[in-house]
Amino acid sequence: MRFLLNLGIGLIFGLGLMISGMSNPAKVLNFLDLAALPTGGWDASLALVLASAVAVGLIGFQTVQRWRKPLLAEAFSRPSATRLDRRIILGPAIFGIGWGLAGFCPGPALVALGTGSLSAAIFATAMLAGMAAARLIPR
By CB neighbour count within 10 A (0-12 exposed, 13-18 middle, 19+ buried), where does 29 fall? Predict the structure, then answer.
């Protein structure tokens, strides 16, 4: 049952990424290109996608905080780190640089991979290589 629920959630998430255009690197790069703002070439449509994701996340977190336990687990898994360190700063920075250069982040890249996109395949390969390399770096 848990597998089917997770599969359904993943399919809905992937469909949302496709419909919103998040799996199209050209659309993402047009959104990230703020230099095109004065010329009218900036694509603001993904701002609505991001704003709605934040709103849904906020409502979800507010709702779940009132629960005693999660629906499909024995207890909530909360992060133990309470302060910013180098890894917490560098990780998102590398993520953002990669997103800005390639127009992909992991979720949309996997969705685009399902469409047979060569650029998504290259990105996914580089992403997996980066994940493997990160495991070699000592904590």
Answer: middle
Domain locations in the chain as residue ranges: 2-136
Are the C-beta atoms of 2 and 11 separated by less than 8 Å?
A: no
Asked whether the predicted pLDDT for residue 30 surpasses 70, the reply is yes
3-class secondary structure per residue, 18-65: HHHCCCCHHHHHHHHCHHHCCCCCCCCHHHHHHHHHHHHHHHHHHHHC
- Mean pLDDT across the chain, nearest whole number? 88
Predicted TM-score (pTM) of the model is 0.71
Give 55-79 pLDDT, tens digit per residue: 999 999 999 989 988 887 888 888 8
SS3 content of the chain, % helix, strand, coil (to 5): 70, 0, 30
